[in-house]
Hints:
Helices cover about 70% and strands about 5% of the residues.
Amino acid sequence: MGSFIGHILPGTLFLLVGLWHIWSSVFRHVSNPKSFRVRVWSSLPGIQGELKYLELYLIVIGGFIDLCIELLVATHFTIFVHGVLDSSHLNNYEHSGMLVMFFFFGLITLLSEKTSFLPLPEGALCLIAAAAFSAEYLLFYFHSTTHKGLEGYYHIILVLLIALCILSTIAGALFPTSFPVDLCCGIAITLQGLWFYQTALTLYGPMMPAGCQLKGDNIVCHSPHDLIRGEVLANFQLFMLVLGVLLSVVASYGFAASRFGHSDFTILNPDED
């Protein structure tokens, strides 16, 4: 069983990173399509100094804060009971393991970009990101907290979005010059963040479907009909999020092409006579 804040915090992190990845991918492509390369992270254009690595600092610091909340605050600073892990907080330990992976991804990428101790190529960083998403996928697929009913349905959709993140980051390592692959990665991360928000608002907030309610630590629907209606509502919510993200991508691409488009971009897209 999760909580409202437990979905909002990681959702915010994924959403910010995903939106920035989309814009950065679009901006780099329209600015110079011939030299476009897949990037697992993107610096702030025209910015020097530490602020250049804002995305990586967001991943490292945000992941560390969420890790402390899951491992320390949520467990009331009681990790061990009589020398063994407190079994009443197994889900928090699992979440902590996932967050450790993203924390180390951000840290390794920072070391690779800022120092000469770990000069990893972009493809290797993509695979490390895919490993972090894989850890997240395994967490939600083999969760100690058994998700059933409506809650389980929302988590199935989340697992599918995480799988899309894994595939797109691996594809980034295999196709390092592909703009669609880089853009797909940003879209997948954005959708994952939005779905964390949607899950929080629906299961633990004001958008609970009629006929279902939060009772104790479980989401209970009064009848099979109420459960089916809740699942159909989840499908509709996902469709609207996908549509909204795709329309935003098209709008941002059009804006970027008109404001920052390179001459090569015009050549690649000539007007018909």
